[in-house]
Amino acid sequence: MDIKITRSGEYIERFSTKGLVISHICSGDGTEVIHHKLEAGFRWYIAPEEGWLALEYAHILAGELVWKKQDEDVVLRPGDSISAYMITEMAMFVASKDTEFLYVVSRPYFHNYSGSIQKLFDLAVKIEEKDGYTSDHCDRIKRLSVLLGERLGLSPYEMYILSLAGFLHDIGKTQIPEHILNKPNKLTDEEYEQMKLHTTYGKQLLHDTGMPDLRIVGDVVEQHHERYDGKGYPHGLQGDQISKPAAIISIVDAYDAMTIDRVYQKGRPRDVALQEIERCSGSMYHPEIVKVFLSIGDQLA
Ligand SMILES: [Fe+2]
Ligand SMILES: [Fe+2]
User: Fold this and answer.
1) Which residues of the chain have pLDDT under 50?
2) What is the CATH code of the structural domain delimited by 113-299?
3) Considering only CA atoms, which of 290, 196, 286 is closest in space to residue 241?
4) What are phi and psi of 36, to 5 degrees?
5) Which of 2, 98, 166, 176 has the least CB density, counted as fewest CB within 10 Å?
6) What confidence score (pLDDT) does residue 119 get?
7) How far, in Å, is the centroid of ligand 2 from the Cα of 169?
8) Segment 211-231, tens digit of pLDDT
9) How far is the CA of 168 from the centre of ligand 1 (A)?
């Protein structure tokens, strides 16, 4: 018999992003036990995967996790657990307090999740600095997109895709030459054409991971500069040809770009930015989504 003792704080591998720390604490025979630490207000998802007959089990250790079902909220407290065999639908959970739970899954989960996503997250954060944002741009886009998506009644799966795409929207800028990315004055036409390619590069990077969910995220990322009137790029899609998550991200991204302080430039006040978004409703942005965005104006930083 091979007995292994894991002391508090020890783990095999760890992945962390803002609001979530997941630690792979033991595995064997295709089953993994993963400790999750989720900060209040953050979300966690269980995603179905085609062809997997997996058991999934979560046991709450501390805090409170709310399972957002379509017609009701189910509150899970310490000692409670949920288990499912063969997940067919995405489930979304929100921590209403700082929460810890164990997640047991009979398929290799941790590596998939941590390997590709951690790399992409690191890249996205590097880009926000090069892009002239002080910090947290990716986090703010993710947070505001999710807030807006929730108001629009997106499904748990769309919310999951939206939160990843929000964080990773400009990941394709890793392929853009630095002298263009960092150029303090206006880009030439040729440079602008190159800059526009970050949408397609982003999609490619996400498709290259081979993970089905990230492929869908890639499709959203490719569309985040499309415009409602069809004058955007890269494909000139219009109206509802643009996916909802992409239409959400384009509004939130524009709002953030206007309001945030850059190294050499102070951001505009919230109300001025909201007026500008409203002015471009129906041309740049989806009018229905703008309406909802304006209605949550008081929750925006
Ligand atoms: Fe972009
Ligand atoms: Fe952005």
Assistant:
1) none
2) 1.10.3210.10
3) 286
4) -115, 135
5) 2
6) 78
7) 7
8) 788 899 999 999 999 999 999
9) 10
